[in-house]
Amino acid sequence: MADETAPGFGASAWLIARKDLTVEFRTKTAFFSAMVFTVLGIAIFFFAWDSTAVASIDLAPGVLWVVFVFSGLLALQRSFSVEQSDRAMDALLVSPVIREAIYAGKAIANLLFICAIQLIAVPAVALFYNLPLGRPLLVLLGMAWLTAVGLVAIGTLFASMAVNTRLAELLLPMLSLPFFVPLVMSASYASTKLLAGRPAAEWWPWLRILIGFDIVFLVACTLAFPFTLEE
Amino acid sequence: MAAPAESRVHAIEATDLVRRFGRRHAVDRVSFSLGSGDCLALFGPNGAGKTTLLRLLAGLLRPTAGEATINGAALRSDQDARRNVGLLTHQTMLYPALTARENVRFAAGLYGLRDPETAASEALALMRVSDRAEVPVRSLSRGLQQRVSIARAVVHRPRVLLLDEPYTGLDAAGAAALTGMLRELRAAGAALVLVTHNLGEGLAIASHAAVMLAGRFTRFDDATALDAAGYGAEYVQLVMAAEGARG
Fold this sequence. Notes:
Chain A is mostly helical.
């Protein structure tokens, strides 16, 4: 008979994240589609670019964040659809795992998934648009990570809300994109100034705003998540 | 209809449970209680509200009115009480890309079992599916998936087990393994609710039997005192009358 104690928040979240990553590792469907979308998006922008009219340093941040947001949506879409096919979500909900830990587990898996895409997207943009390598690229990766945190916080919540609807693929971007605006705006301002070689004092305030948004969205979405599970 | 109310804490207790979907009453003022080691076989035609009742008991649905408790605790608000509950529904609740062992081990982890690996092996062995433990669930037949799903539902040896059509897709060996396991769980003090269309299977295990029609319990009997053949004939009459009334 069951006499063990219910698993803690961290243990439950990691268990769920690990399971999601294992499922994705086995199927690879979302990762490959996100990867193909990322590389294709960067390449299409590159071939449509008139380098005599727009400097690469002005265009590259925009390309990066547009591609990043839409490939991220592919990851978020997959997050709860894996729970739907055989109602595996019911098994999670009937277990003693607290709802917030389910959200955290999903968010961790989504974050790792999106970071894996970033590891290809950021160097690819740097390569296509001849961006400065070295320290600026590392800082840009840091900005991408901070943006991913906010994106995942919001997207995981809305993916949970959208998954039970008939138009989940349409609803997730419609719900999420307006909330992504402050994140992408902060990230693009900061990255433009960083890549233009401006002093840290000019891009750091934008990063602080980004960090602020991350904290607010993480807390708010974690608290809101249990309400999205009501039938 | 209700079993006699007692002051002690029941393994399962439903009090005037109501669940409406729009204007339709899926479950309408259902009250009953089961003690440790009791097994309720719940019969009824399609759409009678049996699955909704199980989902209410499992805490997956919020009741419109009334209350359902497991060992005195409301599952929706008591996270710790959920570790004593197992649920098996029409869907397998498995991840097709994971192997049978990974699915059951994941479930064991959700319940905080100290040794999820051993618990998973034992549950798979109990349902005689150990030889397919390393096969992805999507490659298994429906019957074998059902066995894995049952192993997932009982891996933590729940004190309350809610089963919706557990015999679906099982062959004779699988059905025998399931019946044996349910009897063993009952003997160990677990309370069971078994939703089934097969009166023979249900009455063979049950201590109580109920018939649900249009969201209500129309009969609630002590199954040990029932004559299976007579009960079957009366059940068919009840269902036919309800179908006739519905037009």
